[in-house]
Write the structure tokens for this entry.
Amino acid sequence: MMRKEIRFRLNGEEMVCDVEAHWTLLYFLREIMGLTGTKEGCGYGECGACTVIIDNEAINACLYPIMEVEGKDVTTIEGLVSQNGELHPIQKAFIEEGAVQCGFCTPGMIMSAKALLDENKDPTEEEIKEAIAGNLCRCTGYVKIIDAIKTMGGGR
Amino acid sequence: MRRFEYHKPETIKEALGLVTSLNNARFIAGGTDILVALRQKKAEIDNLISLRNIGELKGIEYGDGLWIGSGTTHTEILKSRVILEHYTALNDGVKNLGSRQIRNVATIGGNICNAAPSADTACPLLVLDAKVLIAGINGERWVDLDGFFLGPNKTVLDKHELVKGFSLPLFPKNTGSSYIKHTRRAAMDLPILGIAARITMDDGKEGATCREARIAMGVVAPRPIRAYETERFLVGKPLTEDVMEEAGNIAAREATPRDSIRGQAWYRKEMVKVLVGRAIKNAMERMGL
């Protein structure tokens, strides 16, 4: 099959890439771009480990056809770090609160948290839980994850 | 993943042309069901025709009634004030569907066309008297949603047709609707049972009786169903505790659930009895009686 050229933004950079039509965004990120911060857990949209942000919305990269990325703005966990290498405040909050155990769900959790906080500066605990309902932590360390996201709120 | 070609038409006409001319072709909307099926090798498709870039399929319009384009995402439905206020059952149905990530891409058209017995938008749309607008190469046709589902993953859609959207009527004052998704976990789970109700009462004064009733049930039959006998029973009655209890009993007789990993048939029948009354109560609370 022929490769197709698509154009989009990835972590703020303009991209022109040749892709195969059946690739998912997750495959492209990990296997072609080497951006392995985005994890593959289940591959069925159940676990949220592959969460990235497209045009301000959190999505599962494992269920996103690469062909639909055309013209869109994609942010992965690698895109949160500032140019001088400083971690994003949400990343710092996760470290500060000890919200990381094995770390596999962490990038997805942080991307879901970022999408929430970009839309809602001071979410309630319920809103936080709702936003990360599609992100499974099998170490089951949810309390600290929720605490970390809470510290980002305007009221605290 | 199996290799396939991916097509991105920008009009309905173009999409229908592609589906008729291409070999082994299927439409893809949000893709959250079909990509899983492809990955699990439950589907073999050579050409996917994306409906995501067709402007005509998107959006919610409120005027003489409500129009919801099939390409509208669950997140967009959740953000609609009109749906929250006047078509509340649909807001209930969408709220706990999948996760935020799924709702951001999955569409209402996809949820209905996939025709799972557990589809969370099906029961709400059934009680809200939704009509489905279907487009094919030879023109358009309207089908009542109740006549749209044939069985698990089966609908009246011809393989060369697509759903443009759903039309819902305006309801009189003193109307309220609700949907209860009975699950072990709120999000990311399929319902053990889904029950929707819409009730329109006479005047809203003391001793008011039920003018129109709709009850729909999911996961109690091969497809989402209306509980017609229960609806007939409710009309003309004041909705007292006794009446609601009896409505639950009738609905349980109309339900023919199976044993499954999510719940046993007897349990589902018992829960129909409980949840029908509860759904009616929720609907009544919303009409501000």
Notes: The longest helix of chain B spans residues 265-286.
